Please model this.
Amino acid sequence: MGYRVAVVGATGNVGREMFNILEEVKFPVDKMHAIASRKSIGVEVSFGNEILKCEDLEQFDFSKVDLVLMSAGGSISKAWGEKIGAAGPIVIDNSSHFRMDPDVPLVVPEVNPEAVNSIPKNIIANPNCSTAQLVVALKPLHDEAKIKRVVVSTYQSVSGAGKEGMDELWDQTKGVYVLGAPPPKKFTKQIAFNVIPHIDVFMDDGFTKEEWKMAVETQKILDPAIKLTATCVRVPVMVGHSESVNVEFESPLDEDEAREILREADGIVVVDKREDGGYITPKESQGEFPVYISRIRKDPTVENGLAFWCVSDNLRKGAALNAVQIAQLLHDKGLLKRKVLA
Model:
């Protein structure tokens, strides 16, 4: 028998991807609910062969579902996350609101599956999209040689900023060839034919909140002793985040060993040929589940250093897929209970 599931934020990019992936992996669903804001009541979304009409977040009775997947933004999670968890279902939240809460596990199933064994608030947090793919790549290497320090530069697609970001890239790209690109609204500068070294708000130390998230989330998920510095950049790509990663280890790990370790790791595909096209770009990652690793090589500037290129579909592993994999993990561990309704 399946579970009663609700997707909050059903009309957004990630919400729609959650429906797609739940169907693709054949997650056991008995009854599915699409939940959205009042302005989206009645909007139709698809789940497999079903057409669902969106129900009102403020009127929905969450006590009648077993699992809630949330991707409606931090303000909605702040207002509703704990209320929903208190009503009984397990909440898997895609926003940043609960990630650093000590009573909320922050989970990437390939990295720290044991974290779901304690869920005090009935809430599990999904990490930042860039963190998710990074820690999948770092985990098997850390197990082998212990990571001291990571330097990462990201190349993040506009879908990470939602439909508005994708629309802005599309409209500006078309405009360049006609009357000129329309002025930016979602981003701080023109994104078409440009890159923007600014994601999320600036903090007092000069880093952006996106860069801070990568550091503290990696420490919470993988190891608090890892030092990480990031530069996060928005690029004119529709879907798929890329990362240039330099890692310093406590003990030696040569590139051939690292390549084999990564080939054997869960959730990773290595495409690493030292020839034209022998690597993955975000275009090839679109619609795919794995984290792809390419360009594995020694970093000669530090002792015990390696560099590599890391690519993944940010709407999937960076968001919707990771949430569904957490749900699968709960199911496999027998931690997701089906309520008996009166």
Notes: Residues 130-314 form a domain with the Dihydrodipicolinate Reductase; domain 2 fold (CATH 3.30.360.10).
